[in-house]
Structure formats: structure tokens, C-alpha cells
């Protein structure tokens, strides 16, 4: 059974940092590229970070480039999102994701709120 479980969200002040984690199970994690998305009510879900299966290549949305870092530990089946210099408009529900054989798989999400 495929499962993605995010954690690490919370309330943080502007300028602060937070690291999100996602633990995967039920599929060949070390052979699968992973992504982080975020979503706010009424807005389209935004892909913010991508990492290849081996971790060699990463891509970021312009909105987070230079502030967020995606990484992974294939031995632990974990993908991470280190977030720094957080801004109020980073407030969102954050999801990890992968795509396989025409299907998108999502975790339940973890809420990040950035406010004073």
C-alpha cells in the first residue's frame, strides 16, 4: 500500500526556518523522483520543489528558489524540505508527491503558518 506521511509543519515567525519531512512506503522510493507542493484555499496547488531519484538534480519554483532546499535519504525512504527566510505568503498546506504510471500520489499534508 502506497503511503506518504508529511510532518514538521507549524507556526513560525517571518524570517524563520522550518524543515518538513515525508516518509514513504509501499513503492520503490529509491527509483522515484519526488516533489513538494503547497496549496492555499482557493488557489491552485503549486509545485515548489523536485528531486530526482538519486538526488542528483533538483528544481525549484521561482517563489522559493534560494530559500528552500529539497533533499532525500533513500536509506530511510525520506524526503525533506528545508525552508528558510520564511514569509507570510509561504503559509500553506505542504504536500509531498510522486507520479507513477499515470497516477499522482499525495500525502495528507502538513500545515505551515508564517506570521508574527
Helix content: under 10%
Largest sheet: 7 strands, mixed
Calculate the mean pLDDT score and round it: 97
Count of DSSP-assigned helices? 0
Radius of gyration from CA coordinates: 13 Å
Element-by-element helix/strand order: EEEEEEEEEEE
Q: Can you offer a commentary on this structure?
A:
- The chain is 0% helix and 53% strand.
- By secondary structure, the protein is an all-beta fold.
- The strands form two sheets. Strands 2, 4, 5, 6, 9, 10 and 11 form a seven-stranded mixed sheet that branches. The chain has a four-stranded antiparallel sheet with strand order 1-3-8-7, with no helix packed on it.
- The protein is globular, with a radius of gyration of 13 Å.
- The protein has no helices and eleven strands.
- The mean pLDDT is 97.
- A hairpin with a 2-residue loop joins strand 9 and strand 10 (103-106).
Name the descriptors.
116 residues, mainly beta, 7-stranded mixed beta sheet, 4-stranded antiparallel beta sheet, 0% helix
Task: Explain the layout of strands and helices.
Layout: E1 3-7, E2 10-12, E3 18-25, E4 34-39, E5 46-51, E6 58-60, E7 68-73, E8 78-83, E9 92-100, E10 103-106, E11 110-114
Parallel strand pairs: 2-11
Antiparallel strand pairs: 1-3, 3-8, 4-5, 4-9, 5-6, 7-8, 9-10, 9-11
Summarize this, please?
The protein is built from no helices and eleven strands. By secondary structure, it is mainly β.
